[in-house]
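Reopening: structure tokens for the adenosine-5'-triphosphate complex, inputs below.
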Amino acid sequence: MLSSDYVQTVFQEKLIQKIMIEVRESISAQVTQKTYAEFHEKNNGEYLSEYINDAGNIEANAISKTFSLLSHGVLIIFATVALASYHLLFLPVILVLAMLMMLLPNKLGQPMAQATRNLSEGNAELSNHLTNYLNGFDVFFNFRRLAIYRQLVKKTSQHYASTKIAYTKTNARVTNTIGGLSIFCQIMVDIVTSVLAIMGLIPLGAISSTGNIAANVFNSLSSFSNEFVQIKATRPLFDKIKPQFSGKAVEEQVSAPIFRTMLEIKNLNYTVGNKVIFHQLNLKINKGGKYALVGKSGVGKSTLLKILSGQITNYSGQILIDGIDLHQFSQDQLVSLLQYVDQNVYLFNDTVANNISLWDQTLLDDNLKVALEKAEVDFTDTSKQMIAENGQNLSGGQKQRLALARFFYQPKLIALIDEGLSALDTQTATKIDEVLLNDKKLTLIEVNHHLSPEMIPKYDDVISLDQA
Ligand SMILES: Nc1ncnc2c1ncn2[C@@H]1O[C@H](COP(=O)(O)OP(=O)(O)OP(=O)(O)O)[C@@H](O)[C@H]1O
Ligand SMILES: [Mg+2]
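Re-run output (same inputs, fresh job):
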């Protein structure tokens, strides 16, 4: 008996976890369908909450409860058959009362779904705030503001508590209503039993056993009904994580670009809120040209590179690659041509090799070696070496070199490098710059805050956004 319980429990858990993998796959599908701008409408804490809290709620309330629902359904059928064996009149009575109990979930489903939606938002907010404060832990530590950290976490915890209490209240109201109705139904069956016994249609001695069986039926029905409400209430969570296919995939697209002559920016306008970043900007970038992009902080250098690399799309004017509008290319096509190296380097808590090749299954050791050499990565003995979360075990300049190694591992025709060398000493920066500048095939746009007079002649042009 014990071993069969063990087998059933393990089998059930395996099935649940199989479904949960699919649930999280669905969240990933939804996340990866988003555009760059859509993804950044939410914070990471909210995504984390979908993977952990919403998925956890689905596991506890939709999937696990489906198993209980099934077993209660079977119990109801057997108990009803047993009751009907005493007298067939029990059948219609139970049927009517059961229908009454099953009508209830429809009424209670709405407030439970709303409570689930609110709880999901509460979870997202909690996760969001905690991620925010934890990511900034070093700041609290260094400014000796650890008490503030505790206060902030307590405040967000208190706020979450009220959401959870509201959810539990709705949940308890639902359970009570169903429980109350179940008692009413049992009394009705008891009345029917007594009438049948008085009329001599069932033996008096059967009253206690029919009472027990009826209690079984309505207890199971009560659980069934409750589980039904809980399962239905998870609907908003399924709606939230369901991938929404946009029409973009079927848009007509031109064939992958082959960069032949020129990248042209024509009458580019871009505004964020009320702030005009670009007004009628015109630029021509020749194939193989080497350009330094300069301008004061906040002028729009990174924004321009993000527009060219397809991360920002809501600009007006035209970006043309050999005369073809950038909007015509898919992000995949665009990235096959150019690579943006972000000013803010993100490194994964994984090996050097995975950080550079980005989990390339056909990792080519030679490519990796060349990439590490070109990016002057001389501080790791082995590509299997682990990098700490966001590269905390590395210096700023070391992180930049690993980001550049990512580019060198899979070089593209156009490199958009956003202050990739700003944290490096002049000697190392010059060495890497020379690799980039001497590559005849490469078209380079490099944001450079510290352009020395001797470096200027090495570029074909210095583009300043200050006057633009
Ligand atoms: N995601 C964003 N949402 C709203 N405004 C933004 C966003 N990113 C940048 N900005 C604004 O756009 C302007 C240009 O920013 P950008 O990052 O392009 O400047 P930058 O020239 O690269 O500056 P820096 O030299 O400091 O890196 C800034 O005023 C900034 O406040
Ligand atoms: Mg910038």
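The pocket of magnesium ion (ligand 2) is lined by residues 301-302, 343, 418 (CB under 6 Å). The chain has a mean pLDDT of 91. Marking as resolved unless the reporter disagrees.
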